[in-house]
Design a protein that fits this description.
The chain is an alpha/beta fold. It has 16 helices and 13 strands. Helix 3 links the parallel strand 3 and strand 4.
């Protein structure tokens, strides 16, 4: 019997039964070896997915890894735009996203049509949209005018750190916008020795009381090297899994959101991906990221430029 793609992809992912008797991790390992595939996972994924990944990192590091890999296939345990970035950088490789529903609230807060109209109002401005935004902005000549997108909190933070005035798009990440200053202060009373570490996409009021601000990779590095033993972590709690792996004797408390029925704020898009979906994606080699070649070439230029600047900074 020939199974067609449309028969097994339902609701954005492969909806195929898996034999309950198999060891799914062993099967994933066998499939990726057979198909010369690499699994990339973001820090916000569940721990079991981080454990099977060939590489775990933030969006910038994953872009760099996607460009470097010699594997024929990339399975991206992240969100849609990250998998698209991998395809942009590796057009000759098959790039698979286990669940097409793994979108991004931040990306969706900046619709292409609306942003195009917005950009037309500032014809002399260049657009910056980067995970290592401070260094990118610092590399731009001061006479150049800048539009920063899509995250308004990150834009305000970058403007404050660099001293650059920028036109900032009004977008936001649902994970970082959900954190509550009031509840964080309550948490600090319970853990008076804990340092607050925060992603720069958090609200400015939270950043103002943070002991360290940085990307997920920066937060991980800080908890690894810092002398303290307790941290309140204001980003998706998936990063705490890596923190515990590196320094298990320390305590990591997820920063609480406004909603008092929850004790943490996590990306529901990231969490749509499961081991079962990764297995089925590898087995059937779908859903696949397909991009228009003209759009891919246009998108490749700013990504390569961002990576070039990032590599120079790291050196």
């Amino acid at each position: 019997m020939v199974v067609k793609n449309e028969d097994i992809i339902k609701d954005g992912f492969v909806d195929a039964k898996i034999d309950k008797s198999i060891d799914i991790v062993d099967e994933i390992n066998a499939l990726r070896k057979e198909k010369d595939a690499i699994i990339l996972a973001h820090f916000y994924q569940q721990g079991d997915i981080q454990d099977i990944a060939d590489f775990v990192g933030d969006s910038l590091a994953l872009s760099q890894q996607a460009a470097k890999t010699k594997a024929k296939m990339i399975v991206f345990a992240g969100v849609h735009f990250m998998a698209e970035t991998a395809k942009i950088l590796s057009p000759d490789k098959k790039v698979l996203l286990p669940d097409l529903n793994a979108g991004c609230s931040l990306a969706e807060s900046c619709p292409h049509g609306e942003f195009a109209v917005f950009k037309e109002k500032y014809p002399k401005h260049i657009v910056v949209s980067s995970s290592n935004a401070v260094k990118i902005v610092e590399s731009i000549p001061k006479e150049k005018k800048i539009i920063f997108a899509p995250d308004k909190n990150l834009g305000k933070y970058v403007s404050r750190i660099t001293g650059r005035k920028m036109v900032i798009w009004d977008g936001g990440c649902h994970v970082h916008e959900a954190f509550s200053l009031e509840r964080i202060l309550e948490t600090k009373k319970k853990y008076p020795d804990a340092k607050l570490i925060a992603h720069p996409e958090c609200d400015e009021k939270i950043l103002n009381i943070a002991d360290h601000i940085g990307s997920t990779a920066s937060l991980l590095e800080f908890t690894t090297k810092d002398a303290s033993y307790e941290y309140i972590v204001a980003t998706d709690s998936g990063i705490i899994y890596q923190m515990k792996k590196r320094v298990p004797e320390k305590q990591y408390i997820p920063a609480p959101p406004e909603d008092r029925s929850c004790d943490r704020s996590d990306c529901n898009f990231m969490k749509t991906i499961t081991l079962e979906k990764i297995y089925n994606t590898l087995h059937y080699e779908i859903p696949e990221i397909i991009l228009d070649e003209e759009i891919r070439r246009r998108a490749e230029k700013p990504i390569l430029r961002m990576m070039e600047i990032s590599e120079k900074i790291e050196l």
